Structure formats: structure tokens, C-alpha cells
Amino acid sequence: MRCFKHPKEEAVGMCKVCNKGLCSECAVEKDGFLFCQTHAGMEEVVRHVEEEAYAPAPKREEEAAVARPVTRRAKFVPPKPLPPKSQLRINARSTVTPAVVGGIVSGIAMGVPFVNFFCLVWMILGGAAAAYFLMLKEGAQQNVRGYLRPVDGTIVGAISGVFGANIALLLNLFAAVNFWDMVTSGIVGLGTDPATANLVFNVIIADPNLDVISLLVRYFVMLVAFPIFGAIGGALVAAYSR
């Protein structure tokens, strides 16, 4: 380091106040501290340097604590809101699998004797299951939070009703052929009057002794009722999917 006033001379130290390099000619020593000639003549400055240097340790620690930056708590950042839902693009091919799923739901429920007594509930539930599965499947494929148009929910619910009617009729006929005696004895055991018992017979199971025309009429009624109430279930899911 060179003297600030005499660049050719090596510095012997620095001023305690301004930190300028001082050669032996420029340096002024006072109480063991070096000062430049300007600050050496300022008694108050020299006194302040001495007081600061010989201050007790607690005072220094206090000053260090004051100078230490205060750690602030991180602000709570609320979670980002979910992106708005967008309308799903549905084509005819994408409705097949969900319709089959909905048909299985309504068909199995409607094909089992006694369980199928609440027929309207199962038909509507089958259409709702088809629409809900369609919404989940297409939302995952299109990578969006989507909703169904009412017409899409209605269509897939109605198609699921067609599948459900066929599954229900097959299971109903299987139960009629194999468990007719068990079902009839169960209905009679309920102690219902003949008119009510006949109504329950007609709802929950097909008579295996029916002729082909009667079975076709039953099948036609199911082909009409299942899609209608399945469409209602699909439309309800679409309406609440927004």
C-alpha cells in the first residue's frame, strides 16, 4: 500500500477514521492509533475513536444486535385457484365405453329379482354413471377440467339405457328359469294380496311360461323405459358438472 499523499512512499498504516494509507511522515500516532494529519487535529474525532475502541464488550454486543437484520416470517401465499372448466369435445366413438359401463350398472341392478323393484332409481343411476364416466375419461384425455353439454349427457345416458335393457332382460330370464320357485315363494311369503303380488311378479321377474309375443312386449317396454330414464340421469350429471 502507498501513502495517499506521497505515492512513492510505502504506507506504514492507515488512518483510523478515513482509512487512507499513511507513510511515516504523514502518520500521527495518538494513544496507539494512527491518524492522518487532518483527523489528528480533531479532538472530538480522536476521542470518539478511543471511546469506541475501549468500549465494554456488552455495549458492542448490543450494537451488533441492533445492526443484525431481523428475520421476517414468510408471508402466507394462498393456493392458486383452479382453472375454469371448459366444455368437453365429445364424439360418437367416445360415448361407447361409458355407455357400456352405465348399461352394466343399470342392467345388473334391474336383472336381479327384488333389487330391481326400485326400477326407476336404477335406470336413472345407470345413465348418471355413464355420463360421469364419460366426463372423467374425456377430461383426462383432453387434459382439462371439463363439463358435459346437456345434450352429450342425455345421449350417453340414453345409449347406456339400451345396453342396460338387454343386460337386464337376459339376467331376468336367467333368474326366471333357474329361481322361479324361490322368487314366487318369497313373494307369497310376504303376505301380500293377490293383486299386489301379481304386480310384484310383473315388475321383478319374467314368467318363464310367457309366450314369445309377451316376452317381446316386455322387451319393447324395457327398450323404451331404460333410454328415457337413462337420458334423465345423464342430463342431471351434465347439468351439475359445470
Written overview of the protein:
The chain has a two-stranded antiparallel ribbon. A two-stranded antiparallel ribbon has the order 3-4. The protein has eight helices and six strands. The model has no long low-confidence stretch (mean pLDDT 80). The chain has two domains: 57 residues, Cysteine Rich Protein (Ribbon); 155 residues, no CATH class. It is rod-shaped. The chain is 60% helix and 6% strand. Helix 4 packs antiparallel against helix 5 and helix 4 runs parallel beside helix 6. Strand 3 and strand 4 form a beta hairpin. With 242 residues, the chain is mostly helical.
Tell me the layout of helices and strands.
Elements: E1 13-14, E2 21-22, E3 28-30, E4 33-35, H1 37-40, H2 43-53, H3 57-67, E5 86-87, H4 96-111, H5 119-142, E6 146-147, H6 150-189, H7 194-204, H8 212-240
Parallel strand pairs: 5-6
Antiparallel strand pairs: 1-2, 3-4
